[in-house]
Structures are given as structure tokens and as C-alpha cells.
Automatic annotation (TrEMBL):
Transmembrane segments: 20-40
Pfam families attached to this UniProt entry: Lys
Protein name in the entry: lysozyme
Entry EC number(s): 3.2.1.17
Native source species: Cacopsylla melanoneura
Family annotation (InterPro entries): Glyco_hydro_22 (IPR001916), Lysozyme-like_dom_sf (IPR023346)
Length: 183
């Protein structure tokens, strides 16, 4: 009788180990799916491996960078808010747009279907999509063109989170302190 009870206990432990292993696998798969959905480190280089070499900017670094590319001081807060909500200030983000399914690239999550070419220069910005991931200057120039043609409404992240100017954080102090700019 005692031997039988020990076998039942061992079977129970084995069942628990299997359940825990299955739950762990499900957790990992869920985590990977969530990361892929929100675009965390999805960019694959030519070898098919993940590329972790992108830059991540601080909010002040982004404000100064945008200003150095000709973004007016009065619009810096909108642009910093936009980049924060589109890519979390990371250059190497590639994510599938939830509404229409196209891949979006880089800091500004620029649509590959419209603005860049997959393998060769193309689209409205006449660039490769990979260029949006590797060259901040190219990415900002393309975003400026999109803004010139469509305004901030081209970015759902700006519409959803940045459109109300009264709620935007002010990042102009980053520029004023750095370049001694007066308004």
C-alpha cells in the first residue's frame, strides 16, 4: 500500500512538472508574440538574424536632433511626442501596422507600402526601407516630406496621443540649454 501511494505521489509530481513546463512555454510564446506585435526588435538583417544595433535616443537628444534638422522650436514637442509613441525613440523598429498590415520602419514608423522601397530605392521618399532603420538623417527627411504633404495626421500615434497641445511635455528646454536659443 505504501509503495502504491509513493507511485501516485511521483505521478502527481510528474504531472505538475509537465503542467509547469507547458505554462512556461506558453508564457514565452505569448511574450514573443507581444514583442512582435508592438515591434520590439523585429528588424532582421540580410542573414535573417535579429539585428540589435539600432540607436535609442533620449527625449532631449531627439529634440536636439530634430531641431538640428530644421524642425521649428514651436513644433519640437509634437515631433518628440510622435517619435515616442511610434518607436519609443528606437531607430531599428519594424512593426506591422495593425490597421492595414503594412510594415512600418524606423523612428517615425514610416510605411513601406507608400514611402520606401523594399530592396531598391523607391516610394514617395525615394529611399530603401532599410535606410529608414540605419540613417537618422534619411528618416527625418522622409518624415518631413510626409508632414509637408499630410501633416501630423499621417501618424496615428500623433492623433491618438499628441494632438492635444495642452497635454504635451515641453522639450524646448533641451534645445535652449544646448544652443542658447531664445524664443
Amino acid at each position: 500500500m505504501r509503495f502504491h501511494w509513493q507511485m501516485v505521489q511521483e505521478e502527481g509530481k510528474e504531472r505538475h512538472r509537465c503542467i509547469i513546463a507547458v505554462l512556461l512555454v506558453l508564457f514565452i510564446l505569448t511574450l514573443v508574440a507581444v514583442q512582435s506585435y508592438i515591434g520590439i526588435v523585429e528588424y532582421r538583417n540580410g542573414t535573417g538574424n535579429f539585428d540589435f544595433t539600432g540607436e535609442k535616443f533620449t527625449k532631449c537628444e531627439m529634440a536636439r536632433l530634430l531641431y538640428s534638422h530644421g524642425i521649428p522650436l514651436s513644433m519640437i514637442n509634437d515631433w518628440v511626442c510622435l517619435v515616442g509613441h511610434e518607436s519609443h525613440f528606437r531607430t531599428n523598429v519594424v512593426a506591422r501596422h495593425p490597421a492595414w498590415g503594412s510594415l512600418c520602419y524606423g523612428l517615425f514608423q514610416i510605411s513601406g507600402d507608400t514611402w520606401c522601397g523594399a530592396e531598391i530605392r523607391g516610394g514617395g521618399c525615394n529611399i530603401t526601407c532599410e535606410g529608414l532603420l540605419k540613417d537618422v538623417d534619411v528618416s527625418i527627411s522622409c518624415a518631413q516630406l510626409i508632414y509637408k504633404l499630410h501633416g501630423f495626421h499621417a501618424w496615428q500615434g500623433w492623433v491618438d496621443y499628441c494632438q492635444d497641445r495642452n497635454q504635451l511635455t515641453d522639450y524646448t528646454h533641451c534645445i535652449k540649454r544646448y544652443w542658447n536659443v531664445t524664443t
